[in-house]
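Q: What structure does this chain adopt?
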Amino acid sequence: MADRDPDTIQQEIDQARDQLAQTIDSLAERVNPTRLADDAKAAVVRFVTQPVVAASLAGVGLVVVALVFRRIRRR
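A:
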């Protein structure tokens, strides 16, 4: 093993520590429950607001309303 200067070793340790801290911060941001919930909500809103999906949901809603009224009239 080559002899290394203690100052060089300390600089490498400090650099590795900084890189590790950045990695941990990045991972903490990725798994933040609030951010994950916001991302999921945004994805659902984007999906539901597509014209085809919105029309399908409206159609399903109308069928459900019709079935409810039909059941109420039968009583």
